[in-house]
Please model this.
Amino acid sequence: MTYFLLLALYLACAVQAKTYKASITWYGTKDERNSGNCNNTGACGFHTSPGFAAAVSQNLFGTDHGVGEYCGKCLELNIQTDEFGRALNGTGKNVVLVVNNVCPAQDNRLCAQPDLQTPNHLGGIIDVNVCSDSGARSAVFGFSGKGLALGTAEEVDCGSWNGTKVEFGSGTSATKSVGSLTSEPTTPGTDSGAAVTRTTTAGANVADVELKWALGALLGGFWLCI
Model:
């Protein structure tokens, strides 16, 4: 019994875990496109208070406007290099964000991937455009002095995300993310945001001790792997 449950856990992890090579950018107050406060916009109809948020490229989001299929999902970001392939120091690690906006393909080279197999010109299969006003810019880019980088984006369970979703009230417009394409230095600590914590789920209420242990491992590992 234990063997089959652990095998199921392994297969669940293999199927569920999705990791993308990503270009990582930022948008919001004081970006080069004058996007404004990104906490006031969002195609998904909500912002975060608190909590790190981001837009994703249209190929992952699912549409160029309105509510996409990726709304409300969470990604864990890890920066690896700058846009020239040089290793970066001082960046945030294992930063979890919730998706609440789209980076449209039109007129945006970084977000113009036609599918999830074809990378953009920097090699990113997707682009993750973090919302600076949610605190995500400082959390992700840290002390690297960068605003454009390459790394990985892993889809994770939103139990790993620390924050609260706030729906927009009547009359609040939801607009697209267009992002910042520069490497403008980041000044850490200038935007707000709570530290990310990871939670796990474990345990199962069954009579058999061995089955209880195995199910606990299965459930706990399943939450971790997704």
